[in-house]
Design the sequence.
């Protein structure tokens, strides 16, 4: 067994240790998400790769709309409305619980990514990072 030298830096937290972020800085925290109140409406933001065209462009808008309509009420997640912009896709949803939110957003993002990638004749990730969800106060 190797003996540890006195005053060495073995073990414990070290600067720069751990998985590096996707970009220069990580976008959305990887800490556990907070609990979802039963009747809460949430605004979910998905960031799109910056080099891709806007999801609201005439070439993609119909495909995004069809993908969202097809998965609008699955896994206990109800899609109330959405907004597609240059760098983001914002969804207003009403989940039954935290698991429904996770599964529903996963399903919707996969549908949208496949539809957009098929239309652009490309492969790979459409969304940059994890989704961000916050309660809508009405």
Sequence:
């Amino acid at each position: 067994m190797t003996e540890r030298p006195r005053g060495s830096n073995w073990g414990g937290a070290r600067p720069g240790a751990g998985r590096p972020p996707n970009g220069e800085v990580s976008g959305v925290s990887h800490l556990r998400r907070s609990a979802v109140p039963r009747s809460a409406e949430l605004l979910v933001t998905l960031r799109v790769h910056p080099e891709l065209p806007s999801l609201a462009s005439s070439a993609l808008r119909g495909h995004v709309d069809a993908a969202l309509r097809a998965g609008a009420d699955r896994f206990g997640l109800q899609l109330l409305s959405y907004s597609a912009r240059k760098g983001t896709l914002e969804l207003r949803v009403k989940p039954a619980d935290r698991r429904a939110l996770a599964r529903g957003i996963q399903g919707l993002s996969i549908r949208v990514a496949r539809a957009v990638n098929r239309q652009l004749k490309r492969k790979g990730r459409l969304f940059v990072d994890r989704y961000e969800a916050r309660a809508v106060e009405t």
